[in-house]
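Appendix B, record 7
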Amino acid sequence: IADYLQAVNFVPKNAVLLTNLASAYQANDQFQLTRDTYQKAIDTGASDCPKEVLYLLGALDENFNKGSQAR
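Structure tokens (predicted):
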């Protein structure tokens, strides 16, 4: 996680880095940080944002009874 955070500090609008950071958070059961970071990846508007990020964000919302927030 520390390495991803350092990389994101240098390139904050990189959707792929943000997605990888979110995955690292998820692997460590840090689900709010996971959700926030997936949202940042989407908000970059970058064409390189992995397509599955929207699905993963919706799945997190659904799993935490926030289905009405899911896109």
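Remarks on this record: The chain has a mean pLDDT of 89. Helices lie at 2-10, 15-27, 31-43, 52-63.
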